[in-house]
Amino acid sequence: MKTNYLSLPLLCLVSPAVFAIEYPDLKRMEPVPATSQVPIIDFVRPELFRDVQLNHTGTHVGAIVPDQNDYLNLVTYNLTTRELVGVAAPPGDTDLSAFLWLKDTRLVYLQTQRKFVGRYLYLTDANKMGNAELLRIEGANGVRQVLGSPPRDRSEILVNLRGPRLRYDHPEMINAYSHGTLVTRYPELKTDHGFNIRFLADKLGSLAFGVTQEDGILSLSMLTNDSWLKCPIDLDQVHLVEAGDAPGEIVVLGRRDGVSPRPLEFMNAETGKPGEVILQDQDYDFSGWLFRDPMSLNIVGAVYNRNAPHVVWFTDAYRDLQKAVDRLFPDQVVRIQGMDDAGKVLLITSGSDIQPAVYSWVNLEKHTSGLIKNSEPWIDPKRMRPMGILKYSTAEGRRIDAYLTLPASASRMSPVPMVVIANPLSSGRWTWGFNSQVQFLASRGYAVLQPNHRGSEGYTWMYPEEESWDFRKMSDDVARATKEAIATGLIVPGRVAIMGNSFGGYLAVSGATFEPGIYKCALSISGIMDWGDYIKQDKYRQYSDPIYSRLRYKLGDPSSNPGKLAAMSSLPNASQIHVPLFLAWGEYDNPELIGQSKNLASTVERNCVTVETMSFLDEAVAIRHLDRRIDLYQHIEAFLLKNL
What we know:
With 644 residues, this protein is of the alpha+beta class. Helices cover 17% and strands 34% of the residues.
């Protein structure tokens, strides 16, 4: 049973009793003394605040927070009294995964079972969080996502309901204030043998667009006159960002021309005709999010990543506002994260490569501001290492960013070993900013390289679309970035490790397989080792999972072209691996993925290559439970110490 924290100070929320004996540092909010090594737990413990949102009236802030049992709950904070006013703690083995402010102090939140499946929607009040009401939506197997709330009536919410399979998901408008009763039943977006992938609301909160996948091909449909109209837009060539400002309008990342970055532009969804260009950077494709004015609901700014976080405002008023908040937080990257409907109260995030996110408020009318919460107060910025930007050249001569963080001891007179962290692609791209994994490795004396590659967001304009599926070329990009870092003279040649999770785990073992002489060891968490086998085995989930048809469409049929897939896979080429491997996976990973890691381990062991393996119960890809994250990084630290 979970503890009710309504009467406890905020700091008590992160004092997990279940870890108090083994990990007493969880009770500590301040940094360890400068004379002590920063412990692993300070780099892997959950943030105090995440997914922070300001309510529409500017009176309260909500945030997802960890509790004493490593579950995620919801806390609300009164900006007038500067006090914690409530905590929502779903019962049992559940986490709170997302929330949305409705009217005044009312909000809804999603509950997830065992950090993976089963989502239930609750309505609560910021001042009475313990009295949450489960919204029982007729005919639904659960709620997958809250898509928005119409500004005209924020008692209504647009929800994407879980069907028996992914393809049967369907959005409906419900009234949260009347126990989840149906307001609008939308027509189902159907495919003959495909899947519903994504739904979008327009700026007024009504269902407007849906993305489907059939035989691996993505398609956009627009809801018009109570029916779905298929749009003549190739979503492999045009990337859908969100709904536009006008009815029937979308915002897209335009087509590649190989000469300049792709334009961020409006597009008529019905005709596929491009409209006004919102933004076109000189060097990077747009990779970020769009800011809407709370009054007009129109797009007024773009927050995205160049080689570092960047923001562009489209009106003088917002440009002046950004200058004003920048002055309040010198030497930090400052973002206007949210604004109340009256445009008087701002939610601000600030941070840097050595400072985790800090949340603050600004009242423009009263000319006042204040701290809400430092997300990781146990991190001492003075002990963190700055992140540098290193440009490297691909085989075609394209220049791509990598990020190099050096430990305090590094110099050309005293070079250090290095760990390369491969991009998992799920995060889009590496960018400049605080990264706890990087800082952990740097604190242990390693240089850390984070190379982007073709396929990473921001660089897709440089190559045709099919290059985003050429994984061997991506591995070559990572190797070239590694060589560029070694050439600085700050890295000891021959003492370089490569690690990653998911697709980054694939790249890590791919580097050990196909890039001899560069990496001394490789670490992979839930990586794919054989693309052909993965597609073959995933066939058995082709009616419940869209991944099979998408991979088959993009990479090819393994039965008709096995050589292509084998050439980009480590398991068929395991005889080429001659360096120690660390392989980890979650027992909830796809069975074929687990089997591949086990097969690779046994194969290279027969070739007298050292392999260490780890598996985790109740985990998949991203290790979520705190005790298991600590265990994982203890083993990573020991593996690197032994092999690097």
